[in-house]
Design a protein that fits this description.
Number of strands: 27
Strand order of the largest sheet: 12-13-15-17-19-20-18-16-14
Shape: globular
Radius of gyration: 20 Å
Oligomer: single chain
Strand content: over 45%
Number of domains: 2
Amino acid sequence: MCALASAGRTAQAQTPVVLPAGDAPVVRVMMRSGTLTIRTWNRSDVQVTSLQPVSARNFKPDAVARALTGSIPIFATSIFDSAGQITLPQEEFALTPLPAGPHQGIFVQALDADVMIMLPAGTALVLASVQRGGIDVQDYHGTFTLLLHNGPLRLRNVSGTGFAQVARGPLMVFDSQFERIRARTAAGNIVFENCNARQIQVSSVTGTIIYDGGAFQPGLARFETEYGSVALGISRDAQVGAHSSVGRIYSIVGGSGVRSGQTDAQIGSGRAVVTASSSHGAIFLYSGTLRSQQRLPAEWRPLAGFAQRRPLPRPRPGRIH
């Protein structure tokens, strides 16, 4: 998709910029800093609004078809903290086949701007990259890759297949359903609240991972962190295997038989297979949500603040160039 950044026609419309996109476009966004807000509407146009200069271009379907391949490379990225360098290695994100038919291409680029983009409800693919700032996506149902180096990333009422990455900052997902989702951070907590997934892989180097009030369709789910903890609140039956290298596994799932201090545990049954592991942190297993627990033991209380909804600031509409 990088080829879409080097060709095409730049829109010369007045603010806001409105580009014809068809019902199932492919949209690429690149920003150096600022908040990217993505919403959907029942129109076949892409609308871009910002108070700061932004360029927006469209591309013909044949250019999009040439740019798309079977997978998208997620390049390695590094951050530095008090412990030294933390690197997220390169991965390949396999694309789900897009809906049949031609797909218009839209490329949006900004240096330092707060940008709001309205997409057709049937948008097939969103590829977004922001260096510093934030990403906020709501009501999108399709395939996506969202890459943020520094700042918070939030998804609400999102479904489909996607890759979400934050190098430094929190990653928050609410009220969403996924056929396949890959989420990772280097230094940042990851919270899924009221979500449902068939295939999910979540990892962090130093962050804590919480899957609160979640459900799993028959498939595979994997949660792993090196220096944080993993907390799984499961609303439906699933096979859960837990491992903590330092031997801290806690459970308040009725009848699970898991005792604190174990290094490995297996609870539940069902076709959904879930694994949770931490090299230096604890594993917490519970039914439902953290808020629904009558009384949390003392060792659980640090988790209570994670499952809070933290909205990102919304950009104000304004002039675009």
